[in-house]
Specification:
Layout: E1 11-12, E2 18-24, E3 29-35, H1 56-59, E4 72-73, E5 75-78, E6 81-84, E7 86-91, E8 94-99, E9 101-102, E10 105-107, E11 110-112
Antiparallel strand pairs: 1-2, 2-3, 2-10, 4-9, 5-6, 7-8, 10-11
């Protein structure tokens, strides 16, 4: 993080979780993210997920891939033709499943493509 002086709005929640605002995609979509200090994975809730939110109001704050011109899913060859590559990771408290994708992510003044 060469040249980064400060990351604004980083806060530590009561259970010691690191929560910070991030921007994803182009144009940028502002999201609040739970930062995982023990892995390099970044999981984003997607508006495509029907079971990730209690209601549409909560889901409206999720990432909308259709609105990002820089969103690119990782496509793999399958016996049935090209398909997005699925991923499932088991953590100590449960598991998370999704798809491998690429997009622009900004965290403070740092941008990762």
């Amino acid at each position: 993080l060469n040249g980064v002086m400060q990351i604004d709005s980083l806060r530590v929640a009561r259970n010691h979780a690191l929560v910070a605002p991030i921007s994803v995609g182009n144009p940028e979509q502002q999201l609040t993210c739970l930062l995982d200090g023990s892995s390099a994975d970044l999981w984003l809730p997607s508006r495509r997920c029907d079971t990730c939110a209690q209601d549409q109001r909560e889901q409206s704050g999720f990432f909308n891939a259709e609105k990002s011109s820089t969103f690119t899913p990782l496509i793999i060859a399958t016996p049935f033709g090209p398909a997005p590559e699925a991923l499932r990771v088991v953590y100590g408290g449960g598991s998370v499943a999704g798809f491998l994708v690429n997009d622009t992510v900004s965290f403070g003044s740092v941008e990762v493509k």
